[in-house]
Amino acid sequence: MEPDQLFIFFNRSILPAWLLLIFAPRWRWTQAIIFHAWIPSFLAVFYIYAFVSNPVFPEDGNFLTLEGVMVLFQQPYLVLAGWIHYLAFDLFIGAWQVRDAQRRDIHHLWVVPCLIMTLVFGPAGLLLYFIVRYWLVRTLTTREVDIAS
């Protein structure tokens, strides 16, 4: 497949996972497929594929300068890899938000706007979740579980 076709495929294929997080967060299949990181892991495989499929790695391309990244992102497969990176990490963060809210007994309706924001604006959605969580349960910790003393 060409990079533009793969771009459309991944954009569309990730939406069911987000819909599950929004509408069925406690369903066993949501937990099995998304909470256990199967979809982000699947995306990671294609992230690697996009890198190795790039026919030409630009000589001046690098991740050390903005100019170097701009040179890399002139290559369609490398842009695709970057986009898959966003899709995988945003979904991983969305799943974490849902799990964290469930552990802290935050009603899911408070989390839905955060998920939508994370899907569209990534880090801004995570920030919104932290604000909502602090407002509701007065905690800033990211600890997964309470440690018994």
Element layout with pairings:
Blueprint lengths: L2 H21 L4 H8 L2 H16 L12 H7 L3 H28 L4 H14 L1 H15 L12
Describe the 3D structure.
- Helix content is 73%, strand content 0%.
- The chain has seven helices and no strands.
- The N and C termini lie far apart (54 Å).
- The mean pLDDT is 91.
Search tags:
149 residues, mainly alpha, 73% helix
Taken as a percent bin, the fraction of beta residues is under 5%
Shape: elongated
User: H/E series, N to C?
Assistant: HHHHHHH
As residue ranges, the low-confidence spans are none
Mean model confidence by pLDDT: 91
Number of domains: 1
Q: Strand pairing plus helix content: what structural class? A: mainly alpha
What's a quick, concise take on this entry?
With 149 residues, this protein is an all-alpha fold. The chain is built from seven helices and no strands. It has one domain.
